[in-house]
Amino acid sequence: MLNRLENVCLLEIINDGRCVKMHDLIRDMVIQILEENSQVKAGAQLEELPDAEEWTENLTTVSLMHNQIEEIPFCHSPRCLNLSILLLCHNYRLRFVADSFSKKLHGLNVLDLSHTNIEKLPNSVSDLVKLASLLLSNCKRLRHVPSLKNLGELKRLDLSSTQALKKMPQGMEFLSNLRCLRMNGCGNKKFPGGILPKISHLQVFVLEVELICVPVTVQGKEVGCLRKLGTLECHFEGHSDYVEFLKSREKNQALSTYKIFVGRFKEYDVRTYCSNKTVGLGNLSVNRDGDFQVRFPNDIQELIIEKCDDATSLCDVFSLKKCSIELEVISILNCNSIESLVLSSWFCSATLPSPSYNSIFSGLQRFNCSGCKSMKKLFPLVLLPSLVNLKEIRVKHCEKMEKIIGGTRSDEEGVMGEKSSNNEFKLPKLRILYLSDLPELKSICRAELICDSLKVIEVINCQKLKRIPICLPLLENGQPSPPPSLEKIKVHPKEWWKSMVEWEHPNAKDVLCPFVEFSQPQVRKQDEDK
């Protein structure tokens, strides 16, 4: 629908395609059409509510968003029985709303007070029995929400980013028509049991993470009873809750978006941007009997693993045959037993025919690895032809890392079943190569790499690395030239770059000189603490 409105210029694209807005002329026309029953004073720099005579009985819509209104005093009690939509959002100075204000707004369907500084929601809101949407997101001072027991028509409740709210609103179990619920734990470490089964028509359930180390968890079985769920963001305490959630759902109940975190996370901030279909595992013992492997969603896009110390590779965590094609992002953090993304021995023992290897990780775009003490090799060489969509490689603080792309030519020939004279591989979409604090790194890849989309190369404290195997485009005279996309090369230390490291072409360093920045390495937080 948005695309159709864009195509006929009723909406216009902004922010590099991430948002759309109504064209100013279209908006003015709509306001004029609705003028008889509407009052739209959005962004009018109002410091107080419009006068009482402007609140006529025929009003159906009032928009006072993006103003500077500071309070709604007791003297304001408009009699607007037909008012359906009231938008007061983004009045950042608004701190007080008198209880009398909404007493005569019995027909109100949408109340939006999000992005205000109110500390208390008026008790009279409890009597708005026709209310379908109550939007209070980013009300960071909000401490009190009255009972919601009488709001049986409520379909959308947004209490996200209300950190000051330390008590769950009473009567939530009576919201049987609720379709969308976004909130935090209201001071609880666990979402109260018994509520979700009574609001089982939920289509969107987002339970925010309040703290990284102490997240708000929810029972897997209760989330599993939400049969109509399409969007889920939550945190399970452990593996058993995650399995209970999956067991409680039917096979055809696919989620359109999900961000599911299982266990405890320390370094990875789960509040940062994730893909639409993300699963994170933190501080778990991965079962070698395949329990995890058969229970990952087949359409998973992002996998985060932190401090799962009994896994030697991703083969121990999930089934490569089922899930790896859709994966776009992999982050492996502080997993001390992991030796490689995929062990070469898996390819030798896999039952897949050789051509199927090319589909494994074919959708992978970003790979992050940090603090893995046993990691010696990132990718086996046989995997390289599959990484055609890889855009970022980030590896840091892996003290035993020797090779980024490892394996011998004979290994590759044995797995692929054929011999190739070609000693070049293409990573056509690779934009960022970041290698930091890898004291044992000796090789990026024994083959030559063609990376014509490179934007940023960073090599910090990798002083045993002697060769960068990236081939530069050649001019007609045979001399190298920088990739057209290249923006910068950050290196440390300076002496290593000037005297030790070599590129594929002997003149490459001279050609790349304008792009080189000599950088001081960042100190890890735990080193600062020491």
TrEMBL record:
Signal peptide: none annotated. The keyword Ubl conjugation does not apply. InterPro entries: At4g27190-like_LRR (IPR057135), Leu-rich_rpt (IPR001611), LRR_dom_sf (IPR032675), Plant_NBS-LRR (IPR050905). Residues 357-468 form the Disease resistance protein At4g27190-like leucine-rich repeats domain. It comes from the Eukaryota. Keywords: Plant defense. The keyword Nuclease does not apply. Pfam families: LRR_8, LRR_RPS2. This is Disease resistance protein At4g27190-like leucine-rich repeats domain-containing protein. It comes from Populus trichocarpa.
